[in-house]
Structure formats: C-alpha cells, structure tokens
Amino acid sequence: MRVFVSRDMASVALGADDVARAFADAGCDVVRTGSRGLFSIEPLVEVETDDGRIGFGPVGPGDVAAVLDGTHATRLGKVEELAFFAGQQRFTFARCGVIDPLSLEDYAALHGWQGLAAARAQAPQAVVDTVKASGLRGRGGAGFPTGIKWQTVLDAPAGDKFIVCNADEGDSGTFADRMLMEGDPYCLIEGMAIAAHAVGAGHGYIYIRSEYPFAIYTMRLAIERSAHLVAPFTLEVREGAGAYVCGEETALLDSIEGKRGQVRAKPPLPALKGLFGQPTVINNVLSLAAVPFILAEGADAYAAVGFGRSRGTMPVQLAGNVRHGGLYEIGFGITLGELVNDVGGGTASGRPVRAVQVGGPLGAYFPPSMFHLPFDYEAFAQAGGLIGHAGITVFDDSVDMAHMARFAMEFCAAESCGKCTPCRIGSTRGVEIMDRIMAQRAPSAAAQPDPGLLPSQEHGSLAKALYSRAPSRIDTSLDAQTSLLRDLCDTMKYGSLCALGGFTPYPVLSALDHFPEDFGARAPIKEAAE
Amino acid sequence: MEEFIAAWIARHGATRDRLLPLLHAMQEEAGHVDDAWVPGIARALNLSRADVHGVITFYHDFRRAPPGRHVVKLCRAESCQARGGAAIEASAARRLGVAMGETRGDGQVALEPVYCLGLCAIGPNALVDGRPVARIDADMLERIALEVAA
Ligand SMILES: Cc1cc2nc3c(=O)[nH]c(=O)nc-3n(C[C@H](O)[C@H](O)[C@H](O)COP(=O)(O)O)c2cc1C
Ligand code: SF4
Ligand code: FES
Fold it and tell me: Which family, according to UniProt (chain A) (predicted)?
C-alpha cells in the first residue's frame, strides 16, 4: 500500500520521521512529500485508495493499524476537499505536498517544465512582455514589478549576467520560500531558467539562509538532478550565515561575493551593476516560482485574479498564536479579518485576538478594528503598514505591545549592518527609551519588563554605562519619552539607507498608535453618552 | 588547519567569493573558526587578515570559540514569542543552567538565540544539535534537557 508522509522541516519537527518509519516497518511503500501547508493536521498521512488519497492527521507512530484499516479518529477524507484547501487558489503551490519533491517524473507529470518550454520557444523580449502583462510584483517585500526589473537586465549590454534568487527569508512569520524549496524545488529552478532565458544570463545563485538546512539539502540535490534540463544555464546554492540584513538585495550580493553583508548605496541598480559588477536579476523565491505558471498558462490567467494593482495570488502565511496556521495561497483582495478569523480560526490559545503583525519584523501591528483591510500592497501602505513577504503573526490578549516595540528596536540593533547612524545607534537608543517607558508606566500594564534591563533608579555606574545620558539628566516622564520615541522613529525612517533602519519605526509606531495603553497612556476615554 | 584549507581550496578554488563557503566548511569540520586560523585563510584567498576577521565577526553563525558538546538554538522571534516563547526561554535557561547566548561552564551545552526557523505556526521552536523541535512546552523541555545531558 502506498502512503504519503511529508518530509518538510515543520512536519519533521512534529514527528513525521517516526511516523514514516512506522509505516515503512508495517510494509507500506512510503512516499515522502513536501507539506500541504496546514500544520494543525501534521503529521499528516495520506493513504492511496481507489477513491484517491485519504488523509489522516495528526497521526503518531502508534496509529499505523488504525490508519490502514481506515478507522482512525482523525480521518480527514480527501485533503484538498478540506475547507482550508478548497478555498485556496494554488498557482504556485499546486504541487507542494502532493508530489515527491525530487522526482523528475512527478514534476513533469504535473505540468512541470511546460513554462520553460513555452519560454524557450519565444524570443527573450516576448518572455519579458508576458511577465510584465501578468502584473507580477516582487514577493520579497517591496512589490516592484518583476517584468520591469527583467527588462532593465535584458537591455543591459551583454556580458556575464546573473540570476540571483533571494531565499534568505528572515522575517518571522514567514515560511513560504522554505516550503516551496523543500516541497517543489524544480518549480524554483524552472522559474530561474526562464529568467535566464529572458535576460540572457548563464549562471544563477540561490542564497539560502543557514537556518534552513532541509531546504539547502533539497535544492542542492534538485539542482544536480535537473542540470541537464536547464543547461546551458547552471545553478548553485550559497548558504547564508545568520545575518538578517543579508536578505536586503545589495547586502546579499556582497555576501555572495565573500564580504560582510553591508548594504550598498543605490544607484547603481543591481539590474545594471549587481553581482561582481554585472547586470543581475535578483528576485525572491516566490516571484521566480510564480513564473512557470505565467508562462505555461498565460499572463491573463495569472492577472485574472487579484485586487487593484496587486495581481495574481499571494501565498499568505498564518503564524504565531493562530489555530489553523499554515500556508494559504489566495488571490489578493481577501481581507485581513477573513484570513485571521475565518481561515486561521482565531487564536490557538482560544483567547481574543489583540494584534497581528503583517510583513515580518519591519511590518506594522494592526488591531482587529482594522481587519477590514484588503490584502493589497496599496491598501496596506495607506494604512501605515506593509504586506512584505505576507507573513501574518497573530497575538492574543496576553501580549504586551510595549515589549514588542522594544523587541523591534532590539532586533534592529542586533541585525543592523552598521552602515548608517540612525539605524546602528538609533536602534540602541530606542531600546533605552522603551526601557524607560516600561519602567514608568503604571504597574498594571500587561507584563513586567525584564528587571535585569531596567535603568537603575539611583544613578549608579551601571546606569551610566548603559545609558548615554544618565536618567538624572533627562526628563524621564512618559510624555517626554514618548515624544522622544516619535522623534527617533522619524530620524530612523528618513535617515536610514535601507528598510531595516527605515521600517523599524513601523512596528514601533503602530504599537504606540494602536495600543497606547501599553505605553502607559491612559486608556482612550470612551465618548460619554449624550 | 593549513592542510584542510589547502585541500578545500584545491577542490573549490581560491577566489574571494569562496570565503563564506570555506568558513562554513571549517566550522563544520572543527566546530568553530579559531582566530589562529585567520592568517592561513587570508593567505590562501589573498586577503588581508583584517578583512577575514571582519567577515567572521559580521556573521552571527561563525563561532570563534569551540561550542558546547550540545547546542540548543532557541527561536526568539515574534511568532514564537506569540506562542509563549519568552517563558520557554526563561525555563530553558534555568533548566539547562546556562544563560541565553552562553556555553555552560562544563562545556556540555550551549544555548544560542536564533531569529526564526520558518516553523512559525508551531512554536516555540528550536534546533537541538541540528534537529528541529516544535511546540516546546515543559515536558518537551525536560526531554531536551535529558538529551543534552548525555
Ligand atoms: C533588511 C531587509 C531584509 C530583506 N529580506 C529579504 C528576504 O529575506 N527575502 C527577500 O526576498 N527579500 C528581502 N528583502 C527585499 C530585497 O531587498 C529585495 O527587494 C527583493 O529580494 C527583491 O526581489 P523581488 O522583487 O522578487 O521581491 C529584504 C529587504 C531588507 C531591507
Ligand atoms: S538602515 Fe541599518 S541595515 Fe540598512 S544600511 Fe543602514 S545601517 Fe545598514
Ligand atoms: S518565529 Fe520562531 S520559527 Fe519563526
């Protein structure tokens, strides 16, 4: 009997290896797949029957007999018919969780390489035109039109052009790049080969963060096995080394070149002077992986779904304290509330949702009163936030938003590349301001700050060492510190070279604006009834 | 290490962009990248020692001292925090007897921070000697503690 068990890193973390071994020991033919993307049913086992694949999950190694005779309590039926999956539009993730990720036959059987074949039958300009017409925008965060980026590289004088895939995926709350690389690596390879044909590049790099050992392993094998299919284009994996800022495209290029991952000033654009000074396409995993569908099915099929200027689908990632966390690929336009409450089922803890952070550590915090926002680049920008890489981190009402604002500053300080002062120094000053605010606010405020990090109330030498100006010499009142925080955020926003320093104010100020009570402000006074 | 570097360079080349892969390979081999090896690396890749030192210290991954016999990399990022990560971090430090970011005095275990493992819907998460572990609670922590005591 054939059964399917995921080997995705998340599934393995939940015990999928033991489950797979138990089924193999029972004589089953076990196919290891990627993850379907709903973690509340993992480890998931799908049993092949005349009626199709029947899912059971979560399943433990002791459940083999009950699963095989169909009596197990967690029988789910056909996985794709579950509400979580039936509502999706899987353009990019169509094969993920279904096929053996490294099987070339499986990939070819489910429309694999059709996009590349279509691309190679056309002139490069026609391919670029198709990508432009699809409306695809960069999925790494900035939402820049992919076709326009490719056009710049195509138009650059010939030479050694490169395709670089940004698989640094450092944002907390995101895992779509990882899931795709582990679950359907040939899709990314096909997308990169199409890009290479479109701009005239000969070699490509996939820069994967070191925190993703499974993805590195799978991509390396997939590159080896598909080399003959993408030749003369060649590819290699480069492993990151634990620096968040290397996800910024120019820092990433410096990192590949063997340098400190410091951000380069633009211009020159990487499209003109990128890796080793050559014209370079640098795109996120999801941008490149969307391309095979666009070439195979046509630009119109992709552009037909979406909202406003956000065309196509977005693989949204539901994370944090959420009941049904996972990957939900859907056309733009679905509201934040639908995603969090209807798809995600609210919090995992069962407590009320208090805040969601969208777009990773540089994204804004939103309260449920803003759940009407449609998932759309422009709508989020207008609301003082960003979609970023489409990770949504859910928090329940036990969260201390001042603590989260402090963490945003702390993270920026830890990960700053050091090139500009507002980011390098400002973030540390930001942590200090947050410590003062948390020390001053009413004791009833949510959680207690870390006592080890509080400014000493006497003006001891420690306080003087930790704080540039000892508390005795500055106005530590809440009002003064809060306006200092706003000032600092303003400086970081307008004085930083890249979005690490420039966007850290988003989580900080959104927390302050939407949850002032956590910063010691009196709870907003309810309008008295007339 | 001179021999290791020479053999690695012979296989992979000595261009500057080989620096990170070489450092990864050395750390894989030896557990850390010792300051004493910097001159050898610099010579092999025709770089200044300051340059090599600058790269090693820029990246959080590279260790300049041997790690603990066991390494627990615990996620500190937002999605794990939303699932009780801070409390687990405090318990882990207490139970393992080592502060976050430190190696225990006897060299048995190191507790290192990591900012997201891409398992954000099933946290709090960790890598225990490279093995991913999810939904860490008090029981799971106890199992990890026993595992790294061995
Ligand atoms: C601090 C910082 C971190 C970033 N991290 C990533 C990342 O992990 N992955 C990614 O694709 N883009 C990341 N970006 C965005 C990239 O700079 C760049 O916009 C993107 O790779 C372009 O590809 P796209 O057009 O396909 O989105 C980051 C940007 C900044 C400022
Ligand atoms: S904002 Fe921060 S990370 Fe970005 S270039 Fe400046 S110092 Fe580097
Ligand atoms: S935030 Fe901990 S795994 Fe992503």
Answer: Belongs to the complex I 51 kDa subunit family.
Same domain, yes or no, for A486 and A524?
A: yes
Residue A496 has pLDDT above 90, yes or no: yes
Nearest to B83 among A9, A212, A320 (CB): A320
Give the contacts of A522 (CB within 8 A, at least 6 positions apart). Answer: none
- pLDDT value at residue A87: 96
Alpha carbon nearest to ligand 1 atom 28, residue: A248
Tokens, residue B144: 């990890």
Both A79 and A169 in one domain: the answer is no
Helices (H) and strands (E) in chain A, counts: 23, 16
pTM of the model: 0.94
By three-state DSSP, how is residue B79 classified?
A: helix
Domain count along chain A: 4
Gyration radius of chain A's alpha carbons: 24
Is residue A282 within 6 Å of ligand 1 at its C-beta?
A: yes
Quick check: A415 and B115 CB within 8 A? yes
User: Is residue B39 within a helix (H) or strand (E), and if so which, with residue range?
Assistant: helix B38-45
Q: What integer is the mean pLDDT of B88-112?
A: 96
Q: What is the mean pLDDT of chain A?
A: 93
Residue A458 corresponds to which tokens in the numbers above?
A: 């006497």
ipTM > 0.95 for the complex: yes
Answer yes or no: is B64 within a domain: no
